[in-house]
Design brief:
The structure holds two protein chains of two kinds.
Chain A lengths: L3 H24 L8 H24 L3 H4 L4 H31 L2 H4 L3 H21 L8 H26 L6 H31 L2 E10 L2 E7 L14 E6 L9 E5 L10 E6 L16 E8 L12 E7 L3 H14 L4 E8 L8 H8 L5 E8 L9 E2 L4 H8 L7 E5 L2 H13 L7 E3 L5
Parallel strand pairs in A: 7-8, 7-11, 8-9, 9-10, 11-12
Antiparallel strand pairs in A: 1-2, 1-6, 2-5, 3-4, 3-6
Chain B lengths: L1 H29 L1
Classes of the chains: A alpha/beta, B mainly alpha.
């Protein structure tokens, strides 16, 4: 759960910023006599421009914004606000036309009206490729290149359009505000996409070792540059890494959960499953390889829930990694918590950290109980089998349904199914936390 | 709980922004 007051303050600041232009032009009551639809069209555009400027701030991984929410909230919020801005901009031309601008506004417009049409087209393309990226079969890296081109282009075109077309910009305050918004957006874009990656590459981390952790799974350990200490993090957070000089691996940024605990000093690890074009080559990484690291991010951590003494962790496959970081931290600090881990895999060979989990289960603090569930077991498997359906969850969880706090990290369809089942079993959403990290 | 918060934040921003646009358009038209 986001830290309540800090999160509320960020949300109030966001609202104040997006509403400021509308309030300013209303108070100054420019050009009286226009129709309601015409004025509403203007307000839609003012709101949309401010929202798309702030989109850069939401995506720039700024600690001030990210910390109370986690990127797994700010990124989906960024996407939703992008859709909202697209709708507002889509409403802007018809409202202006119907409100008195006439069809000539659409057909025989001045050059800056065509610039506005360009901005509208680009934002609709940007929203479409972002919302339906997977359906369109667009790889993440290609999508990111397009998003990086379309986002700033929309802001630039929308600025040029409104600067020339809008009567509201006859106000000096609005002129200053508009230029400040544009400068702010361009500065943040350059800072986030160029300066921070360049800075991370100047003092890169190094790969310490690469060890197989299970079938097609590797644990990669990273050490900080000589003379520097490792960044501080809380268990369950994740990092963005770019392998800078590994032969066969493209120099692309990818995010990986940190599987080690912050109590393990001097290094940190990510445990990575070979599941895509990039990760299938992760075994080619060698000790000594240089890595640009940007971290830490996220709030998927038991430490933010000091009141929750009874925890239920549900992991699907490689989703065990942030939960393992949490468990290791509890073990190393002797945390007085009770944890039931339901760990679902396809086959026994897919189970990661099996021995370490058994050792944890034998310790007194925390009290850890591990239940392995296999969906495609061989004939020798004696444990739980099949999908985690309602009957199985009710049986395995028992009285824990009444009071435990749930942490889920699984593939998205499994999370959706589990959240629905848990709610049917009477668990309120306020006691369910899960990794929601999908762009 | 994160999703719950995300939904509430989204609706709060959307509703307030739409309400502000409507009120501002009304005020600009009839004052």
């Amino acid at each position: 759960m986001p830290s309540r007051w800090t999160a509320a303050s960020r949300l109030i600041a966001y609202l104040a910023l997006i509403l400021t232009p509308v309030v300013v032009v209303t108070v100054n009551s420019l050009e009286p006599g226009d129709t309601f639809a015409y004025n509403l069209g203007r307000c839609c555009a003012l709101l949309a421009f401010t929202i798309i400027v702030l989109q850069v701030a939401l995506a720039a991984r700024l600690k001030w914004i990210e910390k109370p929410f986690g990127l797994n909230l700010t990124f989906p919020f960024h996407r939703r606000m992008g859709v909202f801005a697209g709708i507002l901009l889509l409403l802007h031309p018809p409202l202006m036309i119907l409100g008195g601008g006439g069809l000539e506004l659409a057909i025989d417009g001045k050059w800056y009206i065509w610039v506005g049409k360009g901005a509208l087209t680009l934002i609709l393309v940007n929203v479409a490729i972002s919302v339906w990226r997977q359906r369109l079969g667009l790889p993440f890296e290609k999508w990111r290149c397009w998003h990086d081109f379309l986002g700033p282009s929309v802001i630039l075109l929308a600025f040029i359009h409104s600067w020339n077309a809008s009567v509201d910009n006859s106000l000096l305050f609005m002129k200053i505000l508009w230029v400040a918004f544009l400068a702010f957006a361009l500065f943040l874009f350059v800072y986030h996409r160029f300066y921070v990656p360049w800075l991370s590459g100047q003092s890169p981390y190094q790969v310490l070792e690469v060890k197989p952790a299970a079938k097609n799974v590797w644990t990669v350990s990273f050490i900080p540059p000589a003379g520097q200490t490792r960044f501080d993090f809380v268990p369950g957070q994740f990092q963005f890494v770019t392998f800078l000089d590994t032969p066969g691996l493209p120099e692309e940024e990818h995010h990986f959960t940190i599987s080690s605990s912050p109590t393990q000093t001097g290094f940190h690890t990510s445990t990575i499953k070979a599941s895509g074009d990039f990760t299938s080559r992760i075994g080619q990484v060698n000790p000594g390889d240089k890595v640009a690291v940007e971290a830490p991010f996220g709030r998927f951590s038991y430490v933010f829930h000091p009141e929750a003494k009874d925890l239920v962790f549900i992991a699907g496959g490689i989703g065990i990694t942030p939960l393992m970081s949490n468990l290791r931290h509890m073990r190393d600090t002797g945390a007085d918590r009770r944890v039931l881990l339901l760990y679902s895999n396809r086959i026994e060979a897919d189970i990661v950290f099996k021995e370490e989990l058994e050792q944890m289960a034998a310790q007194a603090k925390p009290q850890v109980q591990v239940v392995h569930i296999l969906t495609q077991p061989d004939g020798n498997w004696q444990g739980e089998t099949g999908r985690l359906d309602q009957e199985k969850l009710r049986r395995l969880l028992g009285g824990r349904l009444d009071h435990s706090t749930f942490f889920l990290c699984c593939p998205p369809p499994m999370i959706q199914s589990l959240v629905a089942i848990l709610q049917e079993l009477g668990v309120p959403v306020s006691r369910i936390s899960y990794e929601y990290f999908s762009l | 709980m994160e999703f719950h918060f995300l939904n509430r934040a989204t609706w709060l921003v959307v509703c307030l922004a739409v309400a502000a646009a409507l009120v501002a358009a009304l005020l600009r038209t009839w004052t």
